[in-house]
Amino acid sequence: MTKNKTRFFTALLISIITIICVIYLIAPNQSQPINHSIMVEHPTDQVSDNTTETFITPSQEHKTDLIEDTDNYQYCERLIKADFSDGYSWASDQYKSWERYLNQGYTLDEVTLVVEHFLNSNFAAEFRVEQLRLHSDLSNQNQQLNEELQRLLSQEQISGLKLEVVRALPAAGLIGYVSLTPSKKVTLLQQVTPSVDDIAYFIGQSEYSDLDIIELLNSVIKPDAIVGYDKFEAISLLDYAVISARVTVVEKLLQLGLKPSEDSYLGSTMEWALRELSRSTTPERRNASAKIVISLNNLGAKARFKTRSQSKIYGIFPRNSFSFNAKEIEGLIADYGLELTLIESRYNLFESKDNLLIDKGNELLVQLTHQQAEYLSKRLNIDNLKQQVTSCKLTVDTINRAWQPESSKKILRRVIAKHPQSPHQIELTLAAIEPSLVDCYLITSDSDRRQEQYLSDVDDLFQPLKNGKVLDVIDQFLSLNLTDQNKNWAFFEILMWDLSFYDELINSGLMVDELQYYSFNSRMLSPKSLDKLAQSGADLNGVDSRGKTLLYYAVHQSNLALLGYMTEKQFPFSLNDQGQDPLHAALDIIHYEFSPDKLVATVDILMGYSPLIDQFHLSRMALLKLKYVDVYRQVTAKYPQLKVQPETTLPKTLCGKSYLGYP
């Protein structure tokens, strides 16, 4: 390192260290990036290279109070979830030191596939690309910076901290290159040599033209060097140019001798090109991407395909995919003479966990599988865990197949098509089939749904709220040129500062659309918050635009304290005979918030309202009996009116917003 560079790094690091120390003294319990170049972390337990197993102290937190019974759906459901979540946690802990297996002589392909086997392809791709970048210029520069940092700081100064310094991109001398005159650009490039990482960064900046990139590229010493810049899981400058659909830059790189990449796990250059072509949303982007695919195809670049026919092209690679339907395939042939089916296929390293290109008897896979099994057996306190999990999966699958509901979406489409001009008739028809369908219909057809639109750069406007000056804040927002959606957003954001501001808000110009019960978040659905809202004049005893009371939404929170509070305060049960009532909602065992452990207590509270029991309550009870027979017995022992009758059938379907994907 030259004297000038040494002085530069020393000055830089002293400044960095000063900032780090000040921040660390102010907030010793935080672990936040300070800026794009410096990161401060509190280290977790480190695993040494010679570690062979990593056990967390086994606990009983997952041990169920149910009797071990692999024919019992509830027991099996808990066991399978615990086995998966704890197994995943074990593998996540291993992820901190997967590279030690490379040091033990295992190949990168082996370790990559083992990471995928125990975690998923995202983790595997991240691990693999990190290893491939280890010897990039950027990684070496970062290593030098961190070694310099270590020399400048004593062990006492860095105790309890993990400091990391990374080189900022682009290089300081290249900042603002795009705004220079042509002559100044030439002068600058005589003084500063761009790296492949600088070029990779600039390629992704839309304000830089292809000509700018090529001018910079002409000054790069090794354009085929490994890219350490981590915007994408790619290490070739050619891939970065392909991802940005810069056809001229791609052609230049090919002229410079760069070859299409074909890593055995990460996306190949052709796969990135097909991804970009399939995502093209403008004629210009489609044209550029198509030209790139043609150029790569002429060079014999390959891609992995899951499906390849005249009717469908589909392929996947870590975190990404590409897909073309018959019309798109034909369009590419007509417009560019590009026949996707003629692109050469390459071998798929990671097709599926059941088809790994790693022998099931692979030493590393066997070793870690044994360690994981031993860990899980101790953690869950079950000696024959593998046998139980296998039996339980069969039990759960068998019971699940006993109920084959019709698709809610298909029913909705069918009924809506039959009565296109009569929302009332649609609701009546759906209610006769299954009340949850009415709720889904109201969600999808809610044209009056309260719309919000985020406002940027207004954080300072909220500051007076710290002193309770809500009227000042409202006035500041009203002085802006706001849409109704902006006003709705500001209304809700101010309300979240303090729910007691509700009275001032509803009497202000920010009040556009009434706040609906369905938009109440978990913070608002609490006894303390509801008290505040009530004291501020909010009507909590009506229904929202979907005909639901607050009690209905509280049921899905599975919060017994909240339900008890609402009962005590005499919140209404249901004021609408269409759609689900709160008891229907409580008995919906496929809702993502359903908790069998809380159902008996929830039913206790709701039965206090003496609801009229209908066939849809009983059909849900039939499903409860099928899957959670112990809970069914407890409920019906207290409330015989909920017992399943001989004529009771399982629900025709169950529909909810979590299935439709609507808020």
Based on CA atoms alone, the radius of gyration comes out at 31 Å
- The CATH topology annotation of the largest domain reads as Serine Threonine Protein Phosphatase 5, Tetratricopeptide repeat
Low-confidence stretches: 1-64, 352-356
Structural class, by secondary structure, is: mainly alpha
The rounded distance between the terminal residues' Cα atoms is 58 Å
- Tell me, what is the CATH class of the largest domain? Mainly Alpha
In total, how many domains does the architecture comprise?
A: 4
Fraction of residues in H or I helices: 40-55%
Number of strands: 7
Form type = globular
Strand line-up in the sheet with most strands? 4-5-6
Q: What percentage of amino acids are in beta strands? A: under 5%
Q: Supply the number of helical segments.
A: 31
Indicate the mean pLDDT. Answer: 86
The main β sheet shows up as: 3 strands, antiparallel
CATH architecture of the largest domain: Alpha Horseshoe
